[in-house]
Sequence to fold (194 residues):
Amino acid sequence: MIDRTVDYYNENAQSFFETTVNADMSLQLEDFIKLLPAGGYILDAGCGSGRDSLELKNRGFKIEAFDASKEMCRRASELLGQQVKLFRFEELNYIDLFDGIWACASLLHVTWEAMPDVIDRLNKSLKANGVLYASFKKGIGERYRGERRFTDADEAYLRSILEDRFDILEIRESIDVRPGRENEVWMNAFARKK
Fold:
């Protein structure tokens, strides 16, 4: 099957924006913020609507954000009041720059094959002792849901992709915060660069 994930987000950007921009991610965000220096530099990796970038910016953090969808970048830029860059995880090329990387429901579109390289790129983007937050839908393997391709994760998979480059601080489950999605379970990983 042809991967049309980015096309899906370009074609459905407004409805996706509207259904995610007000989702309450405060529980994960609060725990992420506790691990960061005040006013630190954060990369919102695959920022979608820009919701979390805005919250972090409002809390005094310096934000850089990117997404693979041109239409999501446009909407997130408007919300955030700054440019959101257009590129994919596989093009990430920062070195020792960020205090934290927030990858909320975004790495789940990276293929199993590409995941080790992408995790390495995220690690290299962080300063020493930088923190990564990543979330995936709970499961195992790759699948399509409509036009979008997903990589699901369980605790064992998260440990396997993170443990060589990160000290894993916590892996925990949570339920989806969007109305009507309460039956969907997410895996949340907090890790510190070795």
User: Anything to note?
Assistant: The longest strand covers residues 126-137. The two ends are 37 Å apart (CA to CA).
